[in-house]
Each structure stands twice: as C-alpha cells, then as structure tokens.
Amino acid sequence: MMDKILLIDDDVELVEMLKEYIDLEGFAVSTAHDGEAGLLALQAENFDLVVLDVMMPKLNGIDTLRRIRQTSNMPVIMLTAKGDDADRIVGLELGADDYAPKPCTPRELVARIRAILRRAKPQATLAKTITLNELVLMPEQRRVEWDGVPLVLTSTEFNLLEVLVERAGNVVSKQMLSELALGRPMAKFDRNIDVHMSSVRQKLSAAAGGKQLIQTVYRLGYQYLK
Low-confidence residues of the chain, pLDDT below 50? Predict the structure, then answer.
C-alpha cells in the first residue's frame, strides 16, 4: 500500500506542484490550505506523515502541530522560511520530526519524507527487544517502557534513543545520530539533534525519577550511560 501524506500549506500553487511531484514518487497525497482544514482531514482519515507549513491563516503551523501532538505521534515535517530559526526550534521542541526550509525543491522534500518513513516503520532485522536495566525498547512495535510504564516519544525521538541504547556506554557523534536517526547528514549549524535530544532526556529523566541517563560529551556527541 502507498504511504499517505497530508500536505498543509496555504500556497496553492506550491501545494499543487509538490503534490504532483510527490504523487509521481509513489505516495498518496491529500492537501489542505490552513491549519483548521488540516486538522479536520486528520480526524477523517489516517495518514503516515504530515508536511506542515508554519505561516498559515486561521491556525498557524505551530498551533496546528501543538494540536496534533495532543493526540498523535505521527511524523511531521515543518516547512519554515529560510533563516527563520525561531519557528524552526519551537517546532522541534513541540515534537516536529524534521524541517525543510522554504523554498525547498520537491526532490529534497521527498528525500526527507522517505528517510523519516523508513525509520518510522519497523524492519524485520530490528524485530527484537532491547533491555537495559529498567529501559525496554521494542523496535517492532516502536514502543518504549521504563520499569513497565510506557514512555511516549515521537518517531525521531525513538530513533535517537534506539541508536544510543544500541551503543550504550559509547559516545555517538551528532553526525552519526543525524545519519542514523534522521536519514541525512547533519548540515552546518543544524540544531535538530540537540533539540530532539533535549526532549528525550527530559522524558527519560521524568520517568526515571530525575536520573540523568544521557550525557553530553563536549564536542563529541552523546552517550547513554549503562
């Protein structure tokens, strides 16, 4: 079955161009032109991924993402104006999985969609349970538990934690984390990994009673402590 993509952007010409290209790449694409219409589409139908513009009428992309994250951890790619770091970081902090700067080429957007969907779906070779003390990762179900209690993570947060836990005790560079968890090399001044990792650390610490399980290794990367 084709993966179903919901594209939410008020730029009608851009949406039609992106839809045509993404359709040709083998996806089933639906569109909406404001946040409210996008939320209604999500209520009416199941999608595998949302591409969401930040600047929109009625309900902007940040508020739309906030509403999505109240009920769903589905992958979300934000479209942000080039150089608009504030919106980008807020989106990541709210749980966006990735962002693409506008204007972006359809080819680049499709590459990001493929990378996220590939890592959001369980692979047969990863159908195992990873247990490290109280932490249990179930890649086949894309689930995490701490001492038997479910830990709610976005798709990208799960990927990052899985990469670290599989290499527990070793330092993992940001470049490797970006390639393995996001499916792309880390760009210069890219803060995706740092923002996502901050969220993972907060959620883990809250579940573990304040214990810090992931440490930053200055200028090298991150390490999950055994």
Answer: 125-126
- Residue 180's identity, in one-letter code, is L
Residues 115 and 11 grouped into a single domain: yes
CB atoms within 10 A of CB 29: 21
Q: Are residues 97 and 143 in the same domain?
A: no
What tens digit of pLDDT does each residue of 190-206 get?
Answer: 888 999 999 999 999 99
For the four alpha carbons of 139, 46, 185 and 218, in that order, the dihedral sign comes to negative
pTM of the model: 0.82
Whole domain around residue 218: which residue ranges?
Answer: 124-224
Strand partners of residue 50: 6, 76
Q: In whole angstroms, give the CA distance from residue 39 to residue 114.
A: 23
Of the three residues 63, 94, 120, the one that is the final residue of a domain is 120
User: At which of 81, 99, 120 does a domain end?
Assistant: 120
222 Cβ contact list (under 8 Å, min separation 6): 164, 171, 172, 174, 177, 197, 214, 215, 216
